[in-house]
Specification:
11 helices, five-stranded antiparallel beta sheet, alpha+beta, homotetramer, Chorismate synthase, AroC fold
């Protein structure tokens, strides 16, 4: 289904060549200041082939709020948002080869199998354009999270192909034990990430290596994958709904629903599975009041009480037993190399005839940098839904408990 | 919430020290032959400290079907199942240290933060005992999947610590390109997996290495993690609901909801993110009628039509655009080292006092082998729910379409 | 929430003075022929102050399909529809009295209480304009139901104030035992209903009485309520999901979610509660092949098998145990007199000051005739969702059962 | 489906002749004092053929709490409850006629049509025994509502056949304008209702008339229906989720899901549809602090703020625009005459042969009195779910709003 969330409920629509793409967001708190200006920046960061910094006045993918606000305040009713498609003609791919061949590792064939019909652009809702509604909805969730708890969500590129920001080592099978990594989690900001355009890996040297690699693949009409890491700071403790909707389970669901994703790790991830418990366990220490964060939002300004204990290390990635513990949540998402490549591919037509597919046109050799705002948006949707579930619980507990 | 699934809806209950644990399964097809004998084997495989082979007559964790069947057939109404807890006394852990200290990397503190109360056994529903209901429900889903499409689900251990069944190599950053791995996916059965008790890694040499490693950690009162791979054969094409409930997203959600999981990979996974698209893409080939599978269920007996095209390679892991393509689905799940260890740990009490926690008693140094039936169960729940969504679609399409 | 349905999922948005109102419809079967022409007629029937017959070329409330179709066929992906609001300026009501007073029996105060804010037009989503999305979605559901099973849904006015089409009598405490009523259910069509514009009560004499009554109330700047009856013919047997989502429960939910509704009766309704069981019970008789129905769709063309037994009488209203039995479903919905009236009303301001409210402008003295397409739409949404649930069940039963 | 509610989620199971019936309740606030003693009274009131007063020490239908509490406090985890079936043998009805004939107006045939199989007791989950889980879950909801807001829910019989507590009159087409009725709503308690056993109509004269009527029908081996009215006092304002989940829509859904119900009215109901708006509208007046209520829970003790305005009359039944306004909510539910009667009925067998069905054994001539606790339970489930939705909203609004 095209809905996500229980309390903060998002419903998206649209494929590449229809009139528009968009989203309805249900459950937005009333009395929130909200305008298109809150939503547009992330849509702009998502746009193909550019970064927010290089194209500050981009006029495309403009969001129009349809409902749910008046005089700049939310009414508590559903907020619908629409973003026009520029190219609404079916057949835009206009490639007779494309009509004959299902693209390898693309969704052309599976959409045909599932629905008995397929959009002319191939895999209908599997298009990256589908993610626009997610990003628009995520921007609203983010604003709520920031205002309510000072939550900050920042994603950045951690590898392209075999080029890593923090290569796994014998000592650090996961970067979760690497102080340099932990320090980056503490301070990284979106501005910093975007300053490393176009790769969005916040390290000059690694970024250069990655950019070269992408260029190589582009030159060969090939493609390459990579990973993003996302950190969420100032998360209230107590979020996540056992047993099936553990916070990491919802994050994994959200991330693997993004096109082209192949893998998800919370905290220490696969590397952590190689560590002894005696090292992997995060001992508790007394929490100290937190200093103002990089982006200026002080912990102390949060309206939500913070736990009195925190962890000395953070291999857990801020979640224990499916519930946030107040430490930074961080996770890594793997993206495969894009399926559409210019290189000739020996494959088979819909009519079961062998042949060679050559995809004309410009193709993105790597989607990882552009996925940054999408990952941030999906993280925000998960957190916001969990926040509302916990607010309902806290509210009722306060009302019924004798304590 | 403690519910999973939309159409095949599972609702579990129970923690370690209450009267019983159990589950209600809603949406079970009527007229299905079903008895406790269909459910007990997986519950027995799940039991701590033993394998199905060594304890064939185990009398514990007996499932009692409460409702929904008559004369051995399902009625189409909810099937409730109950499994008694043997030790219902709170305070069983009986350790004054345990009362003072939240266990590092366990759920004690986060449950307290979330609910303002915690079960005496620590993290309430974070107990492994919670998974019993999942396994019971999964056994029903599995039976439906097997009868309807010949679906076979087999999980097996692929690594413990740094001991791998298929270590990553420069040529095969993911085993997805390794012919030996692909051949194993084709033939592996539960009987074979269990014959490699107690580690459940289906290779004598690797299994021995892993067993030694676990023994070492046990001796040191430490713990170690590892990974499981699960293959699902004979999956009908067309399963998975774009855009948010892609099949891999639901699998990731399901797997990360299992206690102690840290990571999930579909198909080529993180390794695939390092490959060029030209290698990673799975070209299409004409499908040939499939020979009878290892467990005797022939593809040709399936009541569901198979697609005319299949893929030559399978880096996609049987899913493209969030929808099954009919090839084997396989994925890998990472489990962290168990949090409860006998070694002394410097940590802090609930009352913010520094101290040393020593967890008395026997603790499982590695949960990976026992997780095999849990992973299989959750995979079955995801598949069954997707099957029902697709049956509704196919049914309506047939009724409304002019084709 | 602004969502309705589990399989055929509808999500609406919009209030009176925002940019547009609309809906996303998820779960629409693929390969269905669909265009705006399928949706517009019911939207036009819903428009204020007119009937479809008198204003055949009405240019307002035009639906724009945003997504989910290509070359006139549905893709199986979400169908978004948008209808522009003409008057988007807040403050249109422009009445300083209106700003001071919550309108008695309107939603102004409760929206303020719930959200801490209210739209300038008063009760935000309680506006009748909210129902546009329902009607648009219902039109798609109706088309599916008609094509798949020949389902016909027709609502008509059965009372305005004390003027009844079938007044309750000692012999017929409910019209369910009145042959004239049952005969009407058999034959009534939308064309017939609309031919009795503007009241939509399909009886010349009763219609005239009702029209006079409405005129009286209009002249007095007062308002009056009434009832609608809706019949659904050619319903497949087996629809409705025990125990909480019984078919009549879903219909009641759907109807009471329409603005201004106060009551719901299935079949014999409250009248039936006064009858002896020996009269109320519907004995079974052998079903005979049904002749082509009034609107030209023959039962025999249905692709869904009909039960071999039917009932001699139909006090049950086509539903027994929450499940359709194949007989006509019929129900009655009560609408209150509109809350906004021109007459002066002694009431109290938001600021707790007593005063007199006089609502300027033209107000509809009776909403019942206009509610006809809304009731039909909501009935279609309920039926379609139940159809899909049953298709999923039937599909799985066929696959797993030994029968 | 057998689930009800979004945030306070209830999942029931069980039919007449299986091992047990029961329920899982998810979303119960943690730290609530809860034991079987909170649940048993309503189960006892629900038992057939008796009232709480006459059988204070009834040992049947004992609830066993399976999970979710420790030391008398809820843990915030799912609470499972089980009630054994005494008669678990299928075929208990043991009537060869019953096997041949689907009972008229019962669910035998529709269950067979829906599922392709039927329980030996006839309509599986359509049995009144299914309601036990609802009552058990409702008791928990009620306790939460009472502690948090002083909510009081009391249902009572208002008519049996043509015998009314408040017969409709020309002046009062609905009792909503009758001061005697409104006064009863203010003061009626469960103790009072039960003191009028066995009819549960709180008026000696009306009760006697009704009891006589039921006796007459019993003597004739016939059956008769009737109506219940339910009042909910001390409801916080702001409950109910526009647009589809309006509070009256959820109540209608809940009530029509109870076996044997045919009709639902909120507030003035069908009678109100006959009134002029000028009379039906409820003018606002300044609210005055409310005196302690009949059951001793003072309004002033409520932890939830009450609105500053209330209504002078209450034709709305405490709900406007789908949202509670703080006034008493009241509604009426119609129950049909029980379908199983001793009288001979000419009908048709499953095999399409005409014949005569005589149902042996004792049959309840009227279910209305016993439905009292079921209606109360379902009302509590609706209110509690709405409370949690609103707590989530209020919590977030407080955190994000600038006001």
């Amino acid at each position: 289904m095209s809905t996500f969330g229980h309390y903060f409920k998002v419903h998206t629509y649209g494929e590449s060549h229809c009139l528009s793409v968009g989203v309805i967001v249900d459950g937005v708190p009333p009395c929130l200041e909200l305008s298109a200006a809150d939503i547009q920046p992330q849509l702009t960061r998502r746009r193909p082939g550019q970064s927010a910094i290089t194209t500050p006045r981009d006029e495309k993918d403009r969001v129009e709020i349809q409902s749910g606000t008046e005089r700049g305040l939310t009414l508590g009713t559903p907020i619908a948002m629409r973003i026009m498609n520029e190219n609404q003609r079916p057949k835009d791919y206009g490639n007779s080869t494309m009509d004959k061949f299902p693209r390898p590792s693309h969704a052309d064939l599976t959409y045909q199998e599932k629905y008995g019909i397929r959009a002319s652009s191939g895999g209908g809702r599997s298009s990256a354009r589908e993610t626009i509604g997610r990003v628009a909805a995520g921007a609203i969730a983010e604003k709520c999270l920031k205002l309510s708890a000072g939550v900050e969500i920042v994603a950045f590129v951690t590898s392209i192909g075999d080029e890593y920001l923090f290569p796994p080592t014998a000592i650090h099978p996961s970067p979760s034990t690497n102080p340099e990594f932990l320090s980056l989690l503490e301070t990284i900001s979106r501005e910093k990430v975007d300053s490393f355009a176009p790769v969005r890996c916040p390290n000059a040297e690694a970024s250069a290596r990655m950019e070269d690699l992408i260029s190589d693949f582009k030159a060969r009409e090939d493609s390459i994958g990579g990973t993003l890491t996302c950190v969420i700071r100032n998360v209230p403790s107590g979020l996540g709904e056992p047993c099936f909707d553990k916070l990491e389970a919802m994050l994994a669901h959200a991330m693997l629903s993004i096109p082209a994703t192949k893998a998800f790790e919370i905290g220490s991830g696969f590397g952590g599975c190689r560590m002894p418990g005696s090292i992997h366990n995060d001992p508790f220490i007394k929490a100290t009041p937190v200093a103002p964060s990089a982006t200026g939002l002080a912990e102390v300004e949060s309206k939500i009480p913070r736990p009195r204990l925190t962890t000395k290390t953070n291999n857990s990635g801020g979640i224990q037993g499916g519930i946030s513990n107040g430490a930074h949540i961080y996770f890594t998402v793997g993206f495969k190399p894009p399926a559409t490549i210019g290189q000739a591919q020996a494959t088979t037509t819909y009519d079961e005839e062998e042949g060679v597919l050559e995809a004309k046109g410009r193709h993105d050799p790597c989607v990882v940098p552009r996925a940054v705002p999408i990952v941030e948006a999906m993280a925000a949707l998960v957190l916001m839904d969990a926040m509302m579930a916990q607010q309902a619980r806290i509210g009722m507990r306060r009302l019924v408990a004798n304590v």
